[in-house]
Amino acid sequence: MNVLSVASELYPLIKTGGLADVVGALPLTLQSHGIVTRTLIPGYPGVMAAISGATPCLEFDDLLGERAVVLEITHQGLDLLVLDAPAYFDRPGGPYVDQAGKDYPDNWKRFAALSMAGARIAAGALPGWQPDMVHVHDWQSALTPVYMRYATTPELPSLITIHNIAFQGQFSAQIFPSLGLPGHAYWEALEYYGTIGYLKGGIATAHAISTVSPSYADEILMPEFGMGLEGVIASRAADLYGIVNGIDARTWDPGSDALIAGNYSAATLKKRETNRTALAEQFGLEQDNGPIFCVISRLTWQKGMDVLAEVADDLVAQGGKLVILGAGDSALESALLAAAARHPGRVGMRVGYNEPLSHLMQAGADAIIVPSRFEPCGLTQLYALRYGCVPVVARTGGLNDTIIDANEAALAARVATGIQFAPVSAESLRQALRRTFRLYADDKVWQQIQKQGMKSDISWGKSAERYVDLYKRLVKG
Ligand code: ADP
Ligand code: GLC
Questions:
Q1: Which of 152, 167, 317, 383 has its CA 20 to 30 A from that of 290?
Q2: In which band, very low, low, confident or very high, does the pLDDT at 53 lie, cut at 50, 70 and 90?
Q3: The domain 266-455 is classified under which CATH number: 3.30.420.40, 3.40.50.2300, 3.40.50.2000, 3.40.50.300?
Q4: What's the CA angle centered on 232, arms 229 and 235, to 5 degrees?
């Protein structure tokens, strides 16, 4: 089966979060099931620099008013189609924001262009290659199924995966005439509280909708989590699936990871110590036995970083240490930097994005804190499981589905893999940390939790099979 995937990020070429990890890993795992995926991504400067050997395979004279070329290349086992459209994508700054952190004012056009290119390829524009179906991700490629619905060619099956419903691609209705869609598409697909909703349009027109964990699939039917889209989701409930993410087990393997200080496995847990020491050195922490907690996160309200800042003093008072890696909201950044300044040697903070350091943190810290208010899936707790870094997580979305709380029963049955807490408040996180300190104090129990986590199946195995089933069902019609 041939699948066209359309996305705005793909690891290892361009990443701002978990979306990239998933878009980069899924095609590799589907290969062994006979699924050939070609992934269409924007030609941002970093992407163009990494694919210098790519060859042109398709030209658009007028992609929403701009010239564009599609380049093809195989990069680290991934079959890529790169949309080289300098007017849209050749700019400094990030994929969505400029160097000052402001959304590009023409994001509506940049990602409509990406989506339109996807729909043209679906319609057979690429010489010598015809996909059987299309898989799009989040609002940035959500117009692809909309363009497919209103094209003159027969419509292929499509799947939209929602990685985070908080980001919806909502724009003024005034852009509608510039999208190149027939007038009736406005009311049939795109209208969203008097504006235009890209994600809304994708949900309304794709043949199936999936999200990245079963719990989140249930949650987005409710107003607290659906963020305005709960009604639209409910109207498509029969076509809604929750498939939990896996991890790229080659990139994230403590047994072979070249980015950490010393390799280890569940059988050689003692060797983890080398990483713990290296981590303490990197962050200038005191070398004592108190547990090291880490946080690797976008610094946002979603991720509960305000709550983390509130509990930092208590964590230190109990003898713990905390290392934070993240970037985002400047008020949250300041609050966490202030905690680090209050507790030199006990709290360390790195502002910014640092992939290698994130590996050392997973390998060296004793536990990771993920206090998200909502979490569609979450990947850091999965990497943590693999690295024997015990997850302390909010009981929501994918965190709920992937971590087994160390309550009495789970400990007795030897199935516990972490600590869950709810609601997301300073008091409940403080209590969870106190529970974590108690578990950590008992070497045998702690090691059992670590080893159980390292054993848990977080590969793409089962989830890949669920995608394959879904793809097949869609293609059969
Ligand atoms: P989200 O996509 O909502 O940010 P996920 O947990 O799904 O959350 O994915 C986050 C990904 O980004 C993980 O691979 C994590 O390791 C990585 N990450 C987040 N912040 C940083 C950072 N500051 N430096 C390096 N990697 C980071
Ligand atoms: C989004 C979500 C995160 C999920 C990731 C990959 O960024 O916030 O929970 O793990 O997508 O699906």
A1: 383
A2: very high
A3: 3.40.50.2000
A4: 150
